[in-house]
Amino acid sequence: MAFTERSAAARRAILAAARESFATTGYEQSTIRSIAAAAGVHSSMVIRYFGSKSDLFVATVANESPIPEVGDLDDFGARFARRFVEYWEGSDCAGPGALLRVAPTHQDAAEQVQAVFDRLIAGPVRVALAGDPDVERRVALLVATAVGFVYTRHILRLEPVASIPPEALVPALAATFQSHLTGPLAAEPAGRGDEGRGRE
Amino acid sequence: MAFTERSAAARRAILAAARESFATTGYEQSTIRSIAAAAGVHSSMVIRYFGSKSDLFVATVANESPIPEVGDLDDFGARFARRFVEYWEGSDCAGPGALLRVAPTHQDAAEQVQAVFDRLIAGPVRVALAGDPDVERRVALLVATAVGFVYTRHILRLEPVASIPPEALVPALAATFQSHLTGPLAAEPAGRGDEGRGRE
Description:
Two copies of one chain form a homodimer.
Chain A: H1 3-25, H2 32-39, H3 43-50, H4 53-63, H5 76-89, H6 94-102, H7 107-128, H8 135-155, H9 166-182
Helix pairs in contact in A: 1-2, 1-4, 1-6, 2-3, 4-7, 5-9, 7-8, 8-9
């Protein structure tokens, strides 16, 4: 193998070991040393390729993102909702789930959540919405909605959120995400924003 | 004082001591014994009036609810948003904040969150929306949105949610809550729900 192939193989092995470790052992208990051992490399190689444990975590999550490319904004809400629900109903979310579980009481984990969101969603959405004066509010609504669903459904298991079938959740989330991204926002801060849409 | 007045005074003293304890010491560290001592009553009186520590917590929160009466559904989103933001920006939310912080890693705390939500919001909203076939999805969206904002803004302090001024947050939340309650929901589960609203 050429040098670059060897290094690519080592990176893949490290990412796979890290994913496994974060998912089964949790973020806190996973160490660079144990991940390196599982990947069959020296700890220094993990540091060289990925930096810190937290950087490695971000790389692991970014590598199997629950967030699709932003692409066409007009159907991003639907694409995001499908991938988001599929991801969190599946078995690959144990590592990110462990991170979100400890983040409220561990500042470093909360910083990793921030890094993951910046890289995977806030950054790309800011680019896609460039020029929109409400871009920060739109990103905030999007992130808060996504985080809210993960906490209520998968971490706290609050009812009725926990029991909604995935196929009923996807369209509701799709509409909510899309509305946050491209729908009319509420009245400007000065307004009262309570025009009351009425029932239809 | 008549018996009922004495018992009302004792209840108030217990609730005040519990609120103070949950806010300053946190949910986990607060004990029936320490709350009783602070209220100047015997532990057995706390148990008699409120049941367990977790029941006492629910009573404490219910007593200064961040959720207004549902009342007229057509402007409940706006009223809820104003009260919700005011509450979480204020200083009275330390106890509930402490509960939400430990809930992801403490099942009993998660059950208290469920009890608070059932009592303060899911129950009343179910009554107000009786007959609506989508009531469970509406309640779920409402609860997930509210929880999402508390976790992103106040617990994880994720940007850009953490930095949005309250006066910009209120109308955005008002519109979102109202839409979840009385707006058109996305297509039925069988549909793809991605008609794409387009930008307006």
